[in-house]
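Deliverable D5.2: sample structural annotation.
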Amino acid sequence: MALRGRRILLIIAGGIAAYKALELVRLLRAEGVGVTPVLTRAGAAFVTPLALQTLAESPVYSDLFSLTDEATIGHIQLSRAADLVVVAPATADLMAKMAAGLADDLASTLLLATDKRVLVAPAMNVRMWQHPATVANVATLRARGIAFIGPEAGEMACHEYGPGRLAEPAAILPAIAALLEDEKPLAGRHAIVTSGPTHEPIDPVRYLANRSSGRQGHAIAAALADLGARVTLVSGPVALPDPPGLTTSHVETASEMLAAVRAALPADIAVCAAAVADWRVEGIAGQKMKKTASDTPPALRLAPNPDILATLAAPGPDRPRLVIGFAAETEHVAQHAGEKRRRKGCDWILANDVSPGSGIMGGAENAVFLITDEGAETWPRMPKEALARRLAARIAATLAARPGN
């Protein structure tokens, strides 16, 4: 990473996840990045100024009204001297202050006074993250250009499970690099992302579907938006909130998904992460099919659904410059995915093993093979949000390097 010589203002708010800030400082210093730590009063309950100062090789700032620092209006100088401001962890309280424009301590004052980009890494209880107030604050901050990384899903220190864990320092580091190297590498690009399952009706109450939560597709859409892309997310039925700052189209069936994708063209990037049902039922019953003691199970006649990935990848003026598909396999994963890439005509395939016991389908983590015309590349198991950021960065780098960019 071309980070040597850059400077980071690192704001550490309160919460058990503050201990990870020490590892983030270590990683940044190993890359030659200068780190100036700002520790809130609550953050100091979890990590000590001495530990931060030792790792950062820099003074730690905490007090807005320090006479020594304020002799030269130090809080203004701190807010302007860095190349990037990083808040890790960011609590619900600090994000609420940012959204409201409050400045009652050093951290919130720096955030209000800075003229540099800000990267926020939230960490909090899952209920706090999903509370309407926090959701609204995040949407407000995104609309102002604040970049986000995480939170990731997992078990909390409070023993609850869900989104709210601080992104791992190893994932925050490339996000910092992306912002420093090119603030918006996908600015001016349009990306279409499909996500979730499709529901193919049998009758008014029954349907065929795939086991997909939509977590990966939604994370990819958010990661592309964070890099500046204008994103159209076409989502099947999921229990996830719409990512803020995107255009989201909600559909039920594969035919509806294809129509929504076509309506969103033209695009530079297409990522088909949805688990689209391969078949639909011919002759959908207009009323609920009744079961009686003497009835035999009804015979369902199936017909193939439209192939959204192959349609987008077909040569023509509307073909996106980069078409990416997913392949959920249970055996010979890389081999079958390579065959699918050639058959569909897409540029890349991300293949994952969804065999029983893998925990991938519907889970919080993913592990993939990236299949391109150059071969198969193994990506290790990681949170789906981290994989989305890695994919978005790879997309940005690939488009930037192509002739005619």
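Annotation notes: The first strand starts at residue 7 and ends at 12. The chain has two domains: 7-181, 190-281+295-401.
The annotation will be released with the project's public dataset once the embargo ends.
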